[in-house]
Design goal:
The chain is an alpha/beta fold. It has 13 helices and nine strands. The longest helix has 17 residues.
């Protein structure tokens, strides 16, 4: 990715930081997923800025935004839209649902209603939010659906100085109302294509596969990450490298993206869950144990 375009992409991070304080890395992760055309699960307790992050990202990109609340009474037509008979024209007219937006099923990027397939607009991103402490009126995502998400992000509570900054920023008006678009859809599509061109040396590919393979044999893991996890980790590392101004991936890129792209794909053993062991802890143990092959800078670039 050329330096000017990389700077424009990083400008989105700076713009979103005007609304989401103290979460630079998490915002970077959201941009990485977007560059990879992947979807994001933002899992955290209420009030930590999950929906605000999605809105700020959409506004920074000039993209349409819709929100869907997944409750037991939700109907398919509430998501996809429905065809309604127009008595004046004696024809059926399609009224698009909230999924027909740019920031809001998943891999297919298309919706079929009444036998007609509608392509979703590009760029397209699902940012799903999940509250991990209370499920009344909603349902936790099953493991097979979690694996469909490219990345899982946790925002967490802000630090003291950051929470004071939130109070100051929202004293008169929410800063979300004042942020502008800083990247066009065309630029984003170019950046998405450019990130796929980032060089991935054979030794780095082997490291990615070694890390993912280790999840399948870890004693605390019942079911490890699939090849979809390997693809996500390698593509995320490419996007992360491009955002950092490099045209090649280094092992540290893989380490930085391993937990967000792999942890939600692991199913832990029952005894591990009883010990309250987190999947991120397992990933950290794997990164500490899987050796990184000594690689010259030239080999990474070649």
């Amino acid at each position: 990715m050329e330096k000017a375009l990389a700077a424009r992409v990083n400008g989105v991070v700076v713009n979103v930081e005007r609304v989401i304080f103290g979460k630079h890395h998490e915002i970077e992760l959201a941009l990485v997923a977007l560059l990879c055309r992947g979807h994001i699960l933002v899992e955290d307790v209420p009030g930590t800025g999950k929906t605000v992050l999605a809105k700020a990202l959409a506004r920074s990109l000039g993209c349409s935004f819709r929100r869907i609340q997944f409750t037991p009474d939700l109907l398919p037509s509430d998501v996809t839209g429905v065809s309604i008979f127009n008595q004046r024209t004696s024809t059926f007219e399609f009224r698009p649902g909230p999924v027909m937006s740019q920031v809001e099923s998943m891999d297919e990027h298309q919706v079929t209603v009444d036998g007609t397939t509608y392509q979703l607009p590009e760029p397209f991103l699902v940012m799903a939010t999940q509250n991990p402490i209370e499920y009344e009126g909603t349902f936790p995502l099953p493991e097979a659906q979690l694996d469909r998400f490219f990345m899982r992000i946790h925002l967490g509570y802000p630090k003291e100085r950051e929470e004071i900054a939130i109070l100051d920023a929202q004293r008169l008006i929410h800063p979300l109302e004042t942020i502008d678009q800083v990247l066009t859809s065309e630029e984003l599509l170019r950046a998405q294509s450019a990130s796929r061109e980032i060089h991935l040396a054979e030794s780095v590919k082997k490291y990615v596969v070694d890390v993912v393979t280790a999840t399948r044999s870890h004693p605390d893991v019942y079911l490890g990450a699939s090849p979809r996890g390997s693809l996500a980790l390698s593509r995320a590392a490419q996007a992360y490298a491009s955002m950092n101004g490099r045209d090649y991936v280094v092992p540290d890129d893989v380490k930085a993206l391993a937990a967000p792209t792999l942890a939600h794909r692991l199913i832990l053993q029952p005894q591990a869950r009883l010990k309250d062991l987190a999947a991120t802890t397992v990933i950290a143990e794997i990164l500490a144990s899987v050796p990184v092959e000594a690689i010259s800078g030239q080999a990474l670039r070649a």
